[in-house]
Amino acid sequence: MQVTSLRSLLLCSVLASPLLSAAAVEQSLKESEKLSQAAQSSQQQIERLDDASQAMLEEYSNTLAKAKALEGYNQQVSELIAAQHQELLSYQEQLTDLQETEAAVMPQMRRMVEVLAEFIAADIPFLPFERTDRLATLQELLPRADVSMAEKYRRILEAYQIESDYGYTLEAWRGELGEGEAQRSVEFLRLGRVMLYYQTPNGHESGYWNAQTRTWLPLDSSVRRPLKKALAIARQQTSGDWLTLPVKTLAQEVQP
User: Fold this and answer.
1) 256: three-class secondary structure by DSSP
2) Where are the domains positioned within the chain?
3) What is the model's pTM?
4) Phi and psi angles of residue 204, each rounded to the nearest 5 degrees, phi first
5) What does the radius of gyration of the chain's CA atoms come to, in whole angstroms?
6) For residue 137, how far is the Cα from the chain centroid?
7) Per residue in 142-166, is it b (16+ CB within 10 Å) or e — as a string?
8) Local structure of 201: helix, strand or coil
9) Per-residue pLDDT tens for 143-199?
């Protein structure tokens, strides 16, 4: 009984052995396939990690390059700021000097305008409105903060130059003489700053400005034609010629 069972067991083992071997091979193939897939997956992961590493390395290199460029830019900005600071200090020094200069020059310019006003007031009374307006413009210009010192000084010198030029010119114009019922229209003639004459349009009345008494005094009829001729020359209505006009100096006027 025992011998028969052992034989049966051996026979079953022999018959089952090929089946076990096939199953083992199949199992091994499956394991191998799994290992291959795992290896392939690992390789892909490695490649992805390598690509990521390359990208990170490239990004790091770009960051380093940008940092170096930024460092150079910061250096340039620092140098520019330092230069601007020095320039600002220079401007502040110049502004201080300018303020000191202005403090010294302004009184002088005010005095120049005051002297001009005194001169116009004491001068023979020609072009009163024009000269008074020019003087008023200068007086309004001096305290203005929006006008430079150079412009103020230029305008003052310009006014002085105009007043100086009056002394070398012959000028005629029509205006009003007298006040109230005595007012009449006359022709004025300025001979430099030496004499100021007037004559009525009909030539019947002529006179001159007396600087001593600061009044108008009459001239005799002998002056009528020379004065009319001088008026025509001043208006450029005739060519220049010799003029024979009475000239009253201040010394002659104060004589008894």
Assistant:
1) coil
2) 50-168, 170-256
3) 0.57
4) -80, -20
5) 57
6) 24
7) eeeeeeeeeebeebbeebeeebeeb
8) coil
9) 998 998 889 999 999 999 999 999 889 999 999 998 888 889 999 999 998 899 999
